[in-house]
């Protein structure tokens, strides 16, 4: 350290020091460094220390360490002491320290800290270990400890133990733990309370002997089942509290062995074994450390009308018989042991009605009955039992299905298939049909188009506008939602043929066809199918636009649009509507078959008619066709008979279709120039007609206008004559009116002046009267106001006077009462004594002075000796009156 630093440190001042003088109070200490020797010494108060130039204060005055009773502190780098407890110093006088070590100091007299000693932490209270608690201690260095019995006179002897670093032990309560530097507290161990129906699971940290005296290996686990408080040993680790499972008559415990061991019931269990603990074994079960609780098993209860199949039932030794099955029926209750399970759960007894039956199949060979009624069943055999009855199947029997007799009406049927021969048949009503053991319902598959037409249930007549396009209804485009029903494919396909319609049905097995005319009901056989009609639709006609099962016989109509070309190459678009019907004999099967020979009679008929019309129009010019279009088209379609007249119908021999009438709805040119020319010609014709009508109208208007002008002029002349006569009368009336007006004006002015004078006089009189009345009202108001003010002031003054009187009366009563109370308090003797005190004192004073009487005057005023004599003669009366004047009397 250089000289500058030393001078700076020597000049450092602390509280209680001034100019190198340090005054230490009692129980204070400081550290002073001698720079010459390098020795730091300890100074303890009370004393006054003067620092020399080579001395420096390195620790300001600090209070001594006070360790109260039942407290301790830890000092690092403690001093070395001799046998008498005094600090040891080296040859230079420096106190020796045990560096790196610690010392625990308990309650003692206040002590200072020597140089380089350091107090670690705060002064700490000794730890009290309560009952049912313990401290886990660990040796951090080797040391020897002597154990003495806690209670004097106990049978225990003093023991000397050698602790090795790493050893652990317990300091059990109740007691106060005295800490040592050679050991540390690892943790506080608390007692675990084992309640009823509980057990404590412990783990051995290392090879040890537990509190029951049993030798345990490291890692071994065991249970402590005794109720009460249990303090784990130093080598015991608490895994947890195991709660007991309460078993009832309806609940069991499913356990699994983790390893081979002997359970609490003294039964040998192998690793992986599973078993049940029921109420018959114990009411309360605490799982052992090598027992794994799989779950709780509820009891299975069967009622009077219930049964079940138990798979893998256990034998007498509790082992499951794999692959075996057992039927159990109520009333009974049992637990499902490990490995057992119910096939299809708990089932009700089959109760069969009169129209019900069960289809059974044999799982394995067995015999039923005895004697002559012995029946032998082989695996796979099928048979049926019919009601009414109850039935519980055997283990060897499988219930395939429950069947009911199918009620069929007259128009209902079902498809049945024999599973042995494969034969199909249609069973129709009215009847209730029960399938035989080797029969089953067969699903009839139809084409998707037929399926859709049947499920939609559209009427071919009323719903003609609803046709299929690519599998979707065109009515859906128009916003019409038609419900679609799912068809039961095992039921017979039934189709209602509407009035005036026909349906063709093919039998692919017999290779025959039949036609059914409506109204009728068609029921398809297993090998029959409908003939689907794919008709053209729309305008112009599009093929395969309409799908239908029924062929309408008409009369009906159809509309088509097609294009024709005249001989002068004018292309026209024609829209025609045809009335048609089928001419067929319903009793002639060959004629009926001919109707269905043309799949699309609409498209073929429209094409044939359009072809005839095109041929006829091609030989005509546009103007001729435009004037005679109806005749040309009808002649082209129907033809001409022998008499040269147009026929009434057009018959198609292939399917007996008859066209009876043609309606020409529109004829429009296709070419734009032709259309423009036609429009111009029509416009010219219209213009000519319009001009003619305008000229006729103009002539009529001019004629009517001339007549109107003549009547107007005649009327003007008549009106002018009448106006002159009226003007003459007007002038006469104006003269008379002027004379009357002058006379009336003079009279009115005279009357007005007189009336104005009279009104002015009345106004003056009224004004004077009103002013007088106003003055009177004003005076009366002022008088009333003055009178009211005076009355108010009078009432106020009277009230004040009354209050003053009441106050004076009250004060007089109070003063009189006070005076009376004072007189009564003083008493008559006291008043008498006060009255006599003055004269007696004066008399005594004169007697003391030896003066009989005295008169003192200033010589300025004359003396009345008569009055003086009176005062000398009667001093008593004057003294009494003067004392009475000095008494405080309060006047009311």
Quote the distance from N terminus to C terminus: 101 Å
Helix content: 25-40%
Largest sheet: 4 strands, antiparallel
Strand content: 25-35%
Which parts are unreliable, with pLDDT below 50 for 5 consecutive residues or more?
1-18, 467-480, 872-892
Based on CA atoms alone, the radius of gyration comes out at 72 Å
User: Structural class, judged by helices and strands?
Assistant: alpha+beta
Q: Please provide the count of β strands.
A: 61
* Mean pLDDT rating: 84
How many individual helices?
10
Shape summary: flat
Protein model, in words:
The chain has 10 helices and 61 strands. It has 892 residues and is an alpha+beta fold. Strands 51, 52, 54 and 57 form a 4-stranded antiparallel β-sheet that branches. The protein has a 4-stranded antiparallel β-sheet with strand order 58-59-61-60. The longest helix has 178 residues, at 672-849. It starts with a helix and ends in a 6-residue tail after the last helix.
Observed structural traits:
892 residues; alpha+beta; 4-stranded antiparallel sheet; 29% helix; 33% strand; disordered C terminus
How are the SSEs ordered, and which strands pair?
Blueprint: H1 3-10, E1 17-18, E2 21-24, E3 28-34, E4 39-44, E5 47-50, E6 55-63, E7 71-76, E8 102-105, E9 118-125, E10 128-129, E11 133-139, E12 143-147, E13 159-163, E14 168-172, E15 175-176, E16 183-190, E17 192-194, E18 198-204, E19 208-209, E20 215-216, E21 221-224, E22 228-230, E23 236-243, E24 245-246, E25 251-257, E26 261-262, E27 268-269, E28 274-277, E29 284-285, E30 291-298, E31 300-302, E32 306-311, E33 325-329, E34 332-334, E35 341-348, E36 350-352, E37 356-362, E38 366-368, E39 375-377, E40 382-386, E41 389-391, E42 397-404, E43 406-408, E44 413-418, E45 424-428, E46 431-433, E47 439-441, H2 448-456, E48 468-469, E49 472-473, H3 474-477, E50 494-497, E51 501-507, E52 512-517, E53 520-523, E54 528-530, E55 533-537, E56 542-548, E57 551-552, E58 556-565, E59 571-582, H4 589-595, H5 601-618, H6 622-627, H7 629-638, E60 650-652, E61 657-669, H8 672-849, H9 865-873, H10 875-886
Antiparallel strand pairs: 1-2, 2-5, 3-4, 3-6, 7-8, 7-9, 10-15, 11-14, 11-16, 12-13, 17-22, 18-21, 18-23, 19-20, 24-29, 25-28, 25-30, 26-27, 31-34, 32-33, 32-35, 36-41, 37-40, 37-42, 38-39, 43-46, 44-45, 44-47, 48-49, 50-53, 51-52, 51-54, 51-57, 55-56, 58-59, 59-61, 60-61
């Amino acid at each position: 350290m250089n000289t500058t630093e030393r001078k700076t440190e020597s000049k450092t001042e602390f509280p209680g020091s001034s100019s190198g003088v340090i005054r230490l109070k009692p129980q204070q200490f400081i550290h002073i460094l001698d720079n010459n020797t390098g020795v730091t010494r300890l100074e303890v108060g009370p004393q006054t220390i003067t620092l020399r130039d080579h001395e420096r204060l390195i620790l300001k005055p600090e209070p001594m360490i006070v360790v109260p009773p039942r407290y301790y502190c830890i000092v690092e780098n403690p001093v070395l002491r001799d046998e008498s407890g005094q600090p040891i110093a080296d040859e230079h006088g420096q106190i020796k320290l045990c560096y790196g070590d610690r010392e625990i100091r308990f309650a003692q007299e206040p002590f200072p800290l020597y140089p380089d000693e350091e107090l670690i932490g705060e002064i700490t209270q000794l730890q009290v270990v309560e009952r049912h608690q313990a401290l886990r201690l660990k040796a951090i260095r080797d040391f020897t400890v002597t154990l003495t019995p806690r209670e004097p006179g106990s049978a225990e002897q003093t023991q000397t133990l050698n602790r090795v670093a790493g050893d652990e032990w317990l300091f059990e309560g109740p007691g106060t733990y005295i800490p040592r530097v050679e050991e540390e507290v690892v943790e506080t161990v608390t007692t675990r309370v084992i309640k009823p129906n509980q057990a404590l699971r412990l783990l051995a940290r290392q090879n040890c002997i537990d509190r029951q005296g049993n030798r345990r290996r490291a890692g071994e686990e065991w249970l402590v089942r005794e109720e009460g408080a249990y303090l784990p040993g130093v080598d015991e680790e608490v895994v947890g509290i195991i709660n007991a499972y309460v078993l009832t008559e309806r609940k069991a415990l499913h356990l699994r062995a983790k390893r081979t061991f002997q359970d609490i019931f003294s039964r040998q269990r192998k690793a992986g074994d599973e078993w049940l603990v029921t109420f018959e074994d114990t009411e309360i079960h605490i799982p052992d450390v090598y027992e794994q609780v799989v779950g709780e098993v509820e009891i299975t209860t069967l009622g009077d009308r219930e049964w079940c199949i138990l798979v893998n039932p256990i034998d007498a030794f509790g082992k499951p018989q794999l692959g075996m099955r057992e039927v159990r029926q109520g009333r009974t209750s049992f637990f499902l042991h490990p490995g057992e399970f119910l096939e299809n759960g708990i089932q009700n007894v089959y109760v069969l009605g009169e129209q019900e039956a069960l289809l059974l199949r044999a799982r394995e060979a067995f015999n039923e009955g005895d004697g002559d009624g012995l029946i032998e069943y082989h695996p796979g055999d099928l048979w049926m039992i019919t009601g009414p009855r109850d039935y519980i199947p055997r283990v060897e029997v499988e219930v395939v299905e429950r069947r009911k007799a199918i009620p069929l009406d007259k128009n209902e049927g079902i498809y049945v298939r024999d599973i042995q021969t494969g034969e199909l048949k249609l069973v129709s009503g009215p009847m209730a049909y029960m399938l035989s053991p080797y029969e089953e319902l067969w699903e009839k598959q139809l084409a998707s188009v037929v399926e859709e037409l049947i499920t939609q249930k559209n009427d071919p007549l009323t719903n003609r506008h609803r046709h299929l396009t690519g599998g979707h209804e065109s009515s859906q485009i128009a916003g019409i939602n038609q419900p679609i029903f799912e068809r039961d494919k095992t039921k017979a396909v039934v189709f209602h043929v509407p009035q005036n319609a026909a349906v063709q049905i093919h039998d692919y097995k017999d290779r025959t066809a039949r036609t059914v005319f409506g109204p009728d009901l068609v029921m398809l056989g297993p090998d029959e199918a409908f003939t689907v009609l794919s008709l053209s639709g729309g305008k112009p006609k599009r093929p395969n636009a309409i799908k239908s099962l029924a062929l309408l016989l008409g009369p009906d109509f159809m509309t088509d649009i097609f294009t024709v070309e005249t001989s002068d190459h004018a292309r026209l678009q024609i829209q025609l509507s045809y009335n048609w019907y089928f001419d067929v004999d319903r009793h002639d099967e060959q004629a009926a078959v001919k109707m269905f020979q043309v799949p699309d009679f609409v498209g073929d008929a429209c094409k044939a008619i359009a072809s005839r019309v095109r041929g006829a129009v091609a030989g005509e010019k546009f103007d001729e066709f435009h004037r005679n279009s109806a005749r040309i088209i009808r002649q082209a379609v129907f033809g001409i008979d022998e008499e040269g007249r147009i026929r009434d119908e057009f018959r198609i021999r292939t399917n007996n279709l008859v066209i009876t009438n043609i309606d020409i709805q529109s004829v429009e040119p296709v070419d734009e120039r032709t259309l423009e020319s036609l429009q111009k010609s029509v416009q010219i014709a219209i213009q000519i007609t319009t001009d003619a009508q305008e000229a006729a109208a103009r002539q009529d208007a001019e004629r009517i206008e001339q007549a109107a002008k003549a009547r107007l002029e005649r009327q003007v002349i008549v009106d002018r004559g009448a106006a002159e006569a009226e003007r003459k009368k007007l002038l006469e009336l104006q003269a008379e009116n002027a004379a009357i007006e002058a006379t009336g004006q003079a009279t009115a002015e005279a009357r007005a002046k007189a009336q104005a004078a009279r009104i002015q006089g009345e106004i003056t009189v009224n004004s004077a009267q009103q002013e007088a009345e106003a003055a009177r009202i004003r005076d009366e108001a002022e008088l009333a106001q003055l009178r009211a003010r005076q009355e108010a002031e009078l009432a106020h003054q009277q009230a004040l006077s009354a209050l003053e009187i009441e106050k004076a009366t009250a004060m007089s009563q109070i003063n009189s009462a006070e005076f009376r109370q004072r007189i009564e308090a003083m008493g008559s003797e006291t008043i008498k004594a006060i009255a006599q005190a003055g004269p007696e004192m004066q008399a005594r004073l004169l007697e003391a002075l030896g003066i009989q009487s005295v008169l003192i005057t200033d010589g300025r005023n004359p003396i009345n000796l008569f009055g003086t004599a009176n005062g000398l003669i009667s001093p008593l009366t004057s003294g009494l009156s003067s004392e009475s004047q000095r008494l405080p009397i309060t006047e009311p």
